Amino acid sequence: MKWVYYALMAMFLQGTTIFLVKTQLSNNNPYSVLFFQYIFGLSALSSYFLFKKENIFIGKKNVSLAILSGFFVSIGLISYYLAINETALSIVAPVRGTGFILLTSIMGITILKEKLSLKKIMGVIFCILSIIFLTI
Predict the structure, then answer these.
(1) Nearest alpha carbon to residue 105 among 125, 132, 131, 81
(2) In 10 A of CB 32, how many CB atoms?
(3) How far is Cα 35 from Cα 16, in angstroms, rounded to an integer?
(4) Model confidence at 24: pLDDT above 80
(5) Average pLDDT over residues 32-51
């Protein structure tokens, strides 16, 4: 059940982060905000690996996937920041959240061969409906 703790922590911290980003965008360039987030994140991770003395290498096989996912995260975040700079956070956030649910569900089912349950189908349907209601 550790995953519940981690998921709730991620939800709270990422939700708070996006709120803080939105408040910074009135006076700052979205690219600058992301740049400083990455600088601090790299510093924090480097400190963690130095003090914990953990291996940071992931193996040749996974390096290309890690680089590709890093590219996707960067482009995704800057796109998100540009979107919330243009309109209300309360509109953009649900659209982004629904993308997470739809894409990860589809990839989990088709690529990872996860089971498709009625609960998952209903969740995806409600996500789509929430986007329609929030953006109309």
Answers:
(1) 125
(2) 11
(3) 18
(4) yes
(5) 91
- One-letter identity of residue 98: T
What percentage of the chain has pLDDT greater than the value 90?
A: 45
| Cα Rg of the chain (Å, integer) | 18
Q: What is the pTM of this model?
A: 0.81
pLDDT tens-digit map of 53-63: 777 778 877 88
Is the confidence at residue 13, as pLDDT, over 70? yes
Please name the helix (run of DSSP H) or strand (run of DSSP E) that holds residue 70, with its range, or none. helix 60-86
| C-alpha to C-alpha distances, 30 to 69, 71, 131, nearest whole angstrom | 20, 17, 24
If you write DSSP's letter for every residue of the chain in order, what string do you get? Answer: -HHHHHHHHHHHHHHHHHHHHHHHTTTS-HHHHHHHHHHHHHHHHHHHHHHHT------HHHHHHHHHHHHHHHHHHHHHHHHHHHS-HHHHHHHHHHHHHHHHHHHHHHTS-----HHHHHHHHHHHHHHHHHH-
- In whole angstroms, what is the distance from residue 82 CA to residue 30 CA? 6
Handedness of CA 126, 23, 21, 80 (dihedral sign): positive
